[in-house]
TrEMBL record, chain A:
InterPro entries: AAA+_ATPase (IPR003593), ABC_carbohydrate_import_ATPase (IPR050107), ABC_transporter-like_ATP-bd (IPR003439), ABC_transporter-like_CS (IPR017871), P-loop_NTPase (IPR027417). This is Simple sugar transport system ATP-binding protein. SUPFAM superfamilies: P-loop containing nucleoside triphosphate hydrolases (SSF52540). One of its GO terms (molecular function) is ATP binding. Residues 11-246, 263-511 form the ABC transporter domain. It comes from Jhaorihella thermophila. Belongs to the ABC transporter superfamily.
UniProtKB/TrEMBL annotation, chain B:
It holds the Pfam family BPD_transp_2. Its main location: membrane. This is Simple sugar transport system permease protein. It comes from Jhaorihella thermophila. The keyword Transport applies. Keywords: Cell membrane, Membrane, Sugar transport, Transmembrane, Transmembrane helix, Transport. It is found in: Cell membrane. The chain crosses the membrane at residues 12-29, 49-78, 90-109, 153-174, 205-224, 256-274. Signal peptide: none annotated.
Length: 515, 321
């Protein structure tokens, strides 16, 4: 694992700096990665990890600094240079052509001839060899849009291997994977390491770093703050290096004291836009003063459940809030009516459903609450000054940065965008808070804060329904866990009496009785 | 309707479908690469004028053709600059090109020829003449197949054959070559092409230029083969019908040919049957003239089914991490 004195590092970065306007994304970064190792780079969103890797892959030019590959000074002007230097990159959002086959995607840009048929035939043979060598099974003739994300990721890895990459960079590779798929990916990565490949893993998940890497570098605010051997560190230390202060990785909360039922769901059925039934008759109760967590792999009906509760989608069955039935379709089944009834909603996709990205922060703070008398100047006009004053209060209380109500939502980081949404909804002191993926794409510091706010609402005797695909989040935040699979509740568990393994089985549809 | 009439209508269909087909294939290249092009009409119009003008001045239809292609390429380059290099809105750029061509052609025509915005009528070598295919005369006596060969297949201008040969050529280029693979990929997901180390900008310019050449031929055909000279707004919405055909064909070359033949047939019928008398009720000529356009709307609204355009269509490519 140690690079001996004679073998040069696979990658050596010397004094890399890069600025975007006034923002210094990378500041004098130096990094050395030994060949045949898995090196983790960890840091919060906006710490400069992706910028650094984009420089290595030729997407950006560094303002200063040198790149050395296998002991050779290398100029990387574009992706072509990076590929030639033996660097392959698996992006967070896959760069695949959806309606092409696996094989067509693999040869794109590396066809090796003007005519497709011979290229495809050649690639098919090479692909078979690669699949065997690294244990990466794919169907070369499957269309990308018809295979799962785990398989798509394999195609991305194979694309790099097909181009003879010796250095593989993976940017947040597990963001879209189930726990089982992530484990499988890690097995593949270890196999690649055995075959002598060098791997750089960019992530913000501490568990992955601890699981799979040999060494780890921590980035904060554009700087490399530390490089340590994974065996000699622990998650708490890494989190502190990332954020720059001590961070509570666990959610610190008192035991719940559940009271009367706030939300009662009976026999709820929901169809999606295509008419497919996604929620197939579920019963749930959320009590005052408790957080009910819904665990499940994305696409098992959780989104539709949130949407029907939030008034964004019609459904069938019975929903009672504080004992009164809520209409599930037609009049009174919209977001406005739900808010009036005392339900606040932090939607799963803040950029599409929670915010209007081009609008100012203060305009976003008023969304859904336009009819609030405090926001009206008279019968005709809104009181924008009052909204801005309210926004400034929320900015201060939630530590939203930059503290500027006039900034467009787009110009806040993911964590601060989410804080705007959470502040808007929680500050209404709702009877029931619906929260979908509260910390998706949110950095550790903001996660801690958002979790605290949710717990505080619970402690104030409110009910919270939490939907998250992050098992860790469910386990640490929820007082009670219901696992959803294929539109049904597979079982309920108490977090202190279960673990990731048991929940993982339920999430995969294995019956809870045996577990 | 007798056999001869059918042959004549079909013959007319082929001639009328040709400019549609050339423009439709032009649009196919551009849109497959992710650049929407509603400026087909304008490019055709500019090509029609400049081909007729050069043919009138020099007396050579081939110089006219080159001038038409050059004019269309210039507008393509403009569209490329606006929508690829400067990442502007592709629809607005297309609309601007249409306006530019509509105004510019008449203005220059008036300045050069003083004939009320038209070019002089083309004669002799200033026009594309019909090409007699081998044995056409000999075989014309053979029943059924003879007239089909001699009247329908033989006797068109060279550009008609170019247009119909462009269909298999386009299919082959698109689905059998490296260039085609990359072109289709760049219209679906330019980021995939970019990260594979291939220039998105280069591919898109190539596609837009091919589009320019084909539109140029289409325009030249209108003014120097189908008709003898340029008149104001002579494209008469053909660029838009070609776009409709492209959607109808779901951006595929063979289907594009059939769609264009269908629209050509509608135009041929409208041309031939100007007044139809249905037992006392006569359908006015305007209704017949409007028929192809009305049917365009009907077909697009009702019969296309789900047409999925290239996924990156209309979106300028901005490098992202």
């Amino acid at each position: 694992m140690n690079a001996s004195a004679t073998t040069p590092p696979a990658i050596e970065l010397k004094g890399i700096s890069k600025a975007f306007g006034p923002v210094q994304a990378n500041r004098d970064i130096s990094l050395s990665v030994a060949p045949g190792t898995i090196h983790g780079i960890i840091g919060e969103n906006g710490a400069g990890k992706s910028t650094l890797m984009s420089i290595l892959y030729g997407f950006y030019r560094a303002d200063a600094g040198e790149i050395w590959i296998n002991g050779q000074r290398t100029e990387i002007h574009d992706s072509q240079d990076a590929i030639a230097a033996g660097i392959g990159m698996v992006f967070q959002h896959f760069k695949l052509v959806e309606n092409f086959t696996v094989l067509e995607n693999i040869i794109l840009g590396a066809e090796g001839g003007g005519l497709l048929r011979p290229s495809l035939a050649r690639a098919r043979r090479t692909l078979e060899e690669l699949s065997r060598e690294y244990g990466l099974d794919v169907d070369p003739d499957a269309l990308i849009e018809e295979i799962g994300v785990g398989m798509q990721q394999r195609v991305e890895i194979l694309k790099s291997l097909y181009r003879h990459a010796d250095i593989l960079i993976l940017d947040e590779p597990t963001g879209v994977l189930t726990p089982a798929e992530a484990d499988q990916l890690f097995r593949i990565l270890r196999r690649l390491r055995e075959e002598g490949k060098t791997i750089i893993l960019i992530t913000h998940k501490l568990r992955e770093i601890m699981d799979v890497t040999d060494t780890v570098s921590v980035m904060r605010r554009g700087q490399m703050t530390a490089t340590v051997r994974t065996a000699e560190t622990n998650p708490e230390q890494l989190a502190e290096l990332m954020v720059g202060r001590k961070v509570l990785l666990r959610v610190d909360k008192a035991p719940a004291r559940p009271g009367r039922p706030v939300l009662e769901i009976e026999g709820l059925r929901v169809r999606d836009d295509k008419g497919v039934e996604r929620v197939k008759g579920i019963d749930l109760t959320v009590r005052a003063g408790e957080i009910l967590g819904i665990a499940g792999v994305a696409g098992n009906g959780q989104s539709e459940l949130l949407e029907v509760l939030g008034g964004m989608r019609p459904g069938a069955g019975t929903i009672r809030l504080n004992g009164a039935a809520l209409p599930l379709h037609g009049r009174g089944a919209d977001g406005q009516a739900r808010r009036a009834a005392g339900i606040a909603h932090v939607p799963e996709d803040r950029q599409r459903e929670g915010l209007i990205m081009e609008f100012h922060a203060w305009e976003n703070v008023a969304f859904g609450y336009h009819h609030d008398p405090a926001y009206q100047r008279n019968a005709l006009l809104m009181d924008n000054a009052a909204i801005r004053a309210d926004t400034e209060r929320k900015i201060e209380k939630f530590d939203i940065r930059p503290a500027d109500p006039w900034l467009s939502a787009r110009n806040f980081s993911g964590g601060n965008q989410q804080k705007i949404v959470v502040a808007r909804e929680i500050e209404r002191n709702p009877d029931l808070l619906l929260v979908g993926q509260p910390t998706r794409g949110v950095d550790i510091g903001a996660i801690e804060f958002i979790h605290k706010q949710i717990v505080a609402l619970r402690d104030a005797g409110r009910a919270v329904l939490l939907v998250s695909v992050e098992l860790e989040e469910i386990l640490s935040l929820a007082d009670r866990i219901a696992v959803m699979f294929d539109g049904r509740i597979m079982g309920e568990r108490l977090p202190q009496e279960t673990d990731e393994k048991e929940l993982g089985l339920l999430m995969a549809g294995m019956s809870g009785e045996a577990a | 309707m007798d056999f001869d009439t059918i042959i004549q209508v079909l013959d007319s269909t082929v001639r009328l479908a040709t400019p549609l087909l050339l423009a439709c294939l032009a649009g196919l290249y551009s849109e497959r690469s992710g650049i929407f092009d509603i400026g087909l009409e304008g490019k055709m119009l500019a090509a029609a004028f400049f081909s007729a003008a050069l043919a009138a001045i020099t007396g050579s239809v081939w110089l006219g053709l080159l001038a038409g292609i050059a004019a269309s390429l210039t507008l393509s380059l403009l569209h490329g600059l606006a929508s690829i290099t400067f990442r502007g809105n592709q629809l607005i750029s297309g609309v601007a090109i249409n306006f530019l061509a509509a105004g510019m052609t008449v203005l220059i025509a008036q300045d050069w020829f003083q004939q009320g915005g038209r070019t002089p009528a083309l004669i002799g070598a200033g026009r594309f003449t019909p090409v007699e295919l081998p044995l056409a005369q000999t075989l014309s006596g053979v029943p059924v197949l003879g007239p089909v060969y001699a009247e329908l297949i033989s006797g068109h201008s060279i550009l008609v054959y170019v247009a119909f040969l462009a269909v298999p050529a386009t299919w082959w280029l698109l689905f059998r070559t490296r260039f085609g693979l990359r072109l289709r990929a760049v219209g679906e997901n330019p980021a995939a092409v970019d990260t594979a180390g291939v220039s998105v900008i280069g591919l898109r310019y190539a596609a837009v230029m091919i589009c320019g050449v084909l539109c140029g031929i289409a325009g030249a055909y209108l003014a120097t083969a189908l008709q003898a000279g340029f008149v104001k707004d002579m494209t008469a919405g053909r660029g838009f019908i070609a776009l409709a055909a492209l959607i109808f064909a779901k951006w595929r070359p063979w289907q594009a040919m059939w769609a264009c033949l269908l629209f050509g047939l509608l135009q041929a019928i409208a041309l031939r049957y100007q007044n139809i008398d249905l037992g006392g009720i006569s359908i006015p000529v305007q209704a017949m003239d409007a028929l192809p356009y009305i049917l365009t709307v009907v077909i697009l609204a009702g019969f296309v089914g789900k047409a999925i355009p290239p996924r990156a269509g209309g979106e300028p490519y901005v490098k992202e991490r």
